[in-house]
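Can't paste images in this forum, so I'm doing it all in text. The chain is below; anyone willing to post the predicted structure tokens underneath?
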Amino acid sequence: MSIQSAIRIDAHQHFWRYTTQEFDWIDDALSALRRDFLPTDLAPLLQANAMDGCIAVQARQSIEETDWLLALADATPWIAGVVGWLPLASPQIAALLERYAAHPKLCGLRHVLQAEPDAFFEDVQFNHGLSLFQPTGLVYDLLIVERQMESALRLVDRHSEQSIVLDHLAKPRIAAGELQPWATHLRELAARKHISCKLSGIVTEAVRDRWKIEDLRPFVEVALDAFGPARLLFGSDWPVCTVAASFPRWCETAEELLRNCTAAERDAIFGLNAQRIYKLAPTRCENVTPR
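Text version of the structure:
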């Protein structure tokens, strides 16, 4: 790999061993994802696209998967961190957080809020579990869709000291070309300085078989203006992105969309922000080689 001026991190990707029971969200439209995706698959893609490492994000809501991802990270130096899952609404969550937060590569947790009803955002037990995050130093990844943004605003205001990263720009309606009300709500979220945002997962919100960069540009420009280069993080959403774009095509697209940023701003978005926000150890993100 050529020497980079700054560390480059894919802040959002997934690994899994596929089973029909555990990955029932992979429907016929996503049938290409019905196979295993492992570090040996991702390593050459990271290397070819000048990435120093990645953050592995949960794809199943199970403690077993969190343990598996952490084991992968322990065995793979370039997996810089893991955003796992724990049962935040469980009465045992305090003990679980104490145990898992001690793992040096657990950098955050996520719940699949996009699949929950609006009432879940108000759930007392869930909010109690989330309130215990801040002392651990873990980040909370916020996975929602556009229609849930108002509920998410109320949620993040209840946890104003917690570092939160919004996944996939809250999945705007790119295929329909509908900027509003998404843009207004995104700016409201961005006004909360404890929230950052991943530039990830948007090609799959476009018309997957014929999207163009200009379909994405208005949404990325809103996000860049709202959060600024200091609170945007590049992520591939690999392998999910591959139903709409290859890993190299998305990297090239992101580079083009950020062409008007300064070199320092691009360095921040493509890695330094992830390193800072998730508190990643830089030595864990180097020497990407297939295993």
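The chain has a mean pLDDT of 94. The first strand starts at residue 9 and ends at 13.
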